[in-house]
Amino acid sequence: MKSIIKMISMISVISITLFSCKKDEQKVVITAKNIPVLVSSNTTVSLTKDEAEEEAVNFSWDTLDYKWSDPSVSTDILTYTIQIGRSGDDFRSGMITKTTKSKSLALSVQELNKAFLDLGFLPHDTSKVDIRLNAGLAPNAPLYSNVITLTASPYELASYLYVPGAYQGWDPVTALRLQSAMSNGIYIGEINFPEADSEFKITPAPTWDISYGDAGSGKISLDASGNFKSPGAGNYRITVNTNDNTIEFELLAN
Q: Which residue stretches, if any, does this entry annotate as coiled coil (predicted)?
C-alpha cells in the first residue's frame, strides 16, 4: 500500500491529502480551518520540593476544527503535543514532550522541574523555556501554535536524610546519607555497621535540630526518642519511606 501525505497551507486553511488503499487510490482530504491558540495559566512559576505534587502550570487551547472530505473513512487521529525547549533555541537542540487528546494539560511542580533539569539548566538558576503546541493530524504535517515563554528556577531533584550514629561518632555533619533520587519520600543508602545493635538516628538535615527516632515495628517518628539499632554487623542497605514512616534493612553480601 502506498500512502502519500501532503499539506497545503493557504491563509488560515490547511488541507492534508491522504490516499486510500483502493485500487484507484481515491483521494481523501482533511481540512483544518484553524490553528489552536495556546494559553498558559502562568508564565513565571515557583518550583519547590515541598510542593512537588502540586500543579505548577496548566496549558489550554481551543479545539482544532477539521473535517474529512469523505466522512465514511474518518478516524480520530488528532493528538495534541506540548513541546518544551530552551528559550530562543527554536526547539532545535532537544525538546521535552507531553501528549494528550484533551484540550488541556497540567504539569506538576515535579514534572516541570524535571523538564528544566533535562534541558540542561542548573539548579537554582533562573531559566527560561519556550513552549508550543503541535496539533498533529499527520506525523509530517505539524500544526504549531503560538509560543509561550515560561520562567522558573529548578531545584535539585535529589534530597537526603542523614544517619549520625555510634559507627561514626554521632556527628550529623559527617554522617552518611540516604538519598531520594526523585525527592519522592523514599530514601536509600548503605552503611557498614561494625557490630550488631549499633545505634543511630536519622535527621532531615546535618544538625540535631530535628531527628527521627525508633517507633517500633519498623516505624520511624519525629516524636520517638529511641535510637535505631542495626540488625547485625556488616554492610546494610537502609530504606526509609517518609510517606508511610517506615524503615527497612537489607544485609548485603560482602
A: none
**Which grid cell is 113?**
522541574
Q: Tell me the C-alpha distance between 163 and 210, whole Å.
A: 12
Q: Is the pLDDT of residue 190 over 50?
A: yes
Whole-structure pTM value: 0.63
What is the rounded CA–CA span in Å between residue 213 and residue 203? 9
| Residue 1 lies inside a defined structural domain of this protein | no
Same domain assignment for residues 177 and 141 = no
pLDDT at 184 over 50: yes
Pick 34 or 52 by higher pLDDT: 52
- Please give the residue range of the domain that contains residue 84: 6-152
Residue 179's closest CA among 200, 201, 204? 204
Residues β-bridged to residue 129: 86, 150
Give yes or no: residues 211 and 236 share one domain. Answer: yes
CA angle at 56 for the pair 53 and 61, rounded to the nearest 5°:
125
* Calpha distance 169→189 (Å, rounded): 18
Residue type, 158: A
Residue of 175, 184, 187 lying closest to 237 (CA atoms): 187
Query: Taking Cα atoms as reference points, which of 38, 12, 35 lies closest to residue 132?
Result: 38
